[in-house]
Each structure stands twice: as C-alpha cells, then as structure tokens.
Amino acid sequence: MVKADYTFVYAVAPADGEDEVTRSIVRRMLEADVADPAGFQVTDGRIWPLAVESEIFNDDCRNGDGVIRPQFFTDRPDGPTPTGEARDPYDRSQGVRGADQGCGTVSRT
Q1: How far apart are CA 16 and CA 4, in angstroms?
Q2: What integer is the mean pLDDT of 44-56?
C-alpha cells in the first residue's frame, strides 16, 4: 500500500482588477495499492486506488459545487462565516478533514 499526501498552493487575484492577491491551498491524500498478480488479474503499470480525500483552505465555504472561490480581505465582511476550527493547511501530522466537518479558517497561508 502506498500513501501520497500532496499540498497544492494556488495564487489568485480577483477578477475585478483589484491589487490584492491571496492563496488557496488544496491538500489531497491518495492511498493506493498494487495488486498481487498471483491472486488478481492485473495490468502492468496500473495501481488500485483505495481512498482519495481532499480539503480546501481559504475557500468561501460553498460545499459541493466543485469550484474553489478564494476569500479576499475585501470580500470577508459579506461572505459566509466559517464554522470550524482554525487549521494550519501545511500541517501533515493531522489527517485530511472531510467537507462534512465544517468550514474553518486558515491559521496561515
């Protein structure tokens, strides 16, 4: 079994031409296995995904639509209020938190 934990950081500027730039951090965890040819019909060079998890940091908490909408300082007074605890997006000592555990704040970007 192989586990891979990836963190992607996207620098984003608002579409309205403002000078502010922010980051959205996406953490993805992939757990895969290589099937034993003695017990399974396999294809060389292929893996068997067991679990795929992800969480998005600095998003405006619109769960489930598949679009990352970063929060900018100018948008925060009007945007949704975070409901979860503050988390460090770069801390790999904790597992990936699912979307059903609320929308927290980012402790650092």
Answers
A1: 37
A2: 84
**Averaged confidence pLDDT in the chain:** 77
In tens, the pLDDT along 69-94 reads 777 776 665 656 666 677 888 888 87
Strand order in the sheet with 48-57: 2-12, 22-33, 48-57
pLDDT attached to residue 97: 73
User: What single letter denotes the amino acid at residue 27?
Assistant: R
Tokens of 8: 């992607």
State the DSSP code for 101: G
Phi and psi of 72, rounded to 5°? -105, 155
Q: How far is CA 16 from the centre of its chain?
A: 25
Tokens of 25: 């951090």
